[in-house]
Amino acid sequence: MAEPTKEKLLETEEVRARIEALKQSVAEMAEYVGIDDRRKRLAELEEQQASADFWNNQTKAKEVIAATNAERAYTIPFDSLVKTVEDAGVMLELAEMESDQTSQQNALKDTLAECAKADGFFAKIRMQSLLGGKFDACNVFVKLHAGQGGTEACDWVAMLYRMYQRYAENQGWKIEEYDSQPGEEAGLKDVYFRVEGPYAFGMLKAERGIHRLVRISPFDANKRRQTSFASMETVAEINEEIDVEIKDEDLRIDTYCSGGAGGQHVNKTDSAVRLTHLPTGIVVACQKERSQHMNKEKAMNMLRAQLYEYYEDQKKAEMDRFYGAKSENGWGSQIRSYVFCPYTMVKDLRTECETSDVNGVMDGNIQPFVEAWLQMKAKESTT
pTM of the entire structure? Predict the structure, then answer.
């Protein structure tokens, strides 16, 4: 019978070397992301928020708050990183004071665990550094639409909507649904929603494209395996300073009753608004608010964002610059496959990133896919 392998004893010097390497990386990261300039900018923004007339211009105030959150997305994890590395140094000193070998080994393991926490903060900051696009720090409008697959595709849209809701919660973002159309039997034909939070557009643009589902259909009495598709589109929410001309004669405005669960709070007036921009065919809708005026305002905001990107695409003759390559919502066009049967796997066909944890992904754990896509784009921009 083989003797059990003895665990290698940790040496204080190797742990010290690990901490010194982290300190060096902290200094390099501070210079790379320009942390001093970001702190200065953050202080200026916070000073603006402290002024008595800050909320006199609500549009400008919201822009300042968004810019503040964008800077904090760097400074908060960086401060946590610095503190974690400092704590690791203190823990090492305490470990060196232990006279008992077992106690010292436990203390050194705890120190290395603290170093591992620092690695996590490094990863978060590196992630932020990949988000340098013009609108990456903006909020984002998202549309999910059922493709090939009938009822199964509508159910797939509802599943994706839940996935992105969970992802937003994990990121500390806020989701506001604007409009949705239920499927004939189940799920959603499409859903429009807005995601508010630091770098929402920068990260969710990685999800733009066709998503493919393979599973045993719960709607098939014969329990056959079905394949269905849904598209995901993203558009950055632009600020009021960016001028987009929308002529009254180019708009068709339709009003209708908002949907809902019914009961005493059901809205019986035509408060929901659908806007159709006739020259481009772009259609947006909002039924969230009980006021027709507020729904129209939100719909106009979404239309401005979509038109801005549409015209930018035309100028540059690159129709995939913001929307991604336009593809048929079906076979051969997917960016990612979600397989529930006969095996479990989620695979991104652009980056080859994959996992067998389908349930985790559907609960919002899509960050590895987002990071892999951003890293791929960063490499492409340097070659």
Answer: 0.74
Predicted confidence (pLDDT) per residue in 224-276, tens digit: 888 999 999 999 998 766 778 888 899 999 988 866 544 434 444 678 899 99
**Rounded (5°) CA angle 285-287-291:** 120
Q: CATH class for domain 12-129?
A: mainly alpha
Buried b (16+ CB within 10 A) or exposed e, 354-364: bbeebeebbeb
Dihedrals phi, psi of 110, to nearest 5 degrees:
-65, -35
- Tokens 């599973």 appear where? 215
CA atoms within 13 A on the CB side of 82: 10
Q: How far apart are CA 192 and CA 28, in angstroms?
A: 42
Instruction: Let me know: does 295 contact 271? Beta carbons within 8 Å.
Output: yes
| CATH fold of 140-239+332-382 | Alpha-Beta Plaits (3.30.70)
Q: How far apart are CA 286 and CA 134, in angstroms?
A: 26
Whether 180 and 259 have beta carbons less than 8 Å apart is answered as yes
Residue 144 has pLDDT above 80, yes or no: yes
Q: Assess contact for 187 and 218: CB atoms under 8 A.
A: no
Question: CA-to-CA distance for 354 and 314, rounded, in angstroms?
Answer: 35
What residues pair up with 285 in beta bridges, in sequence order? 274
Return the residue matching tokens 């076979």.
331
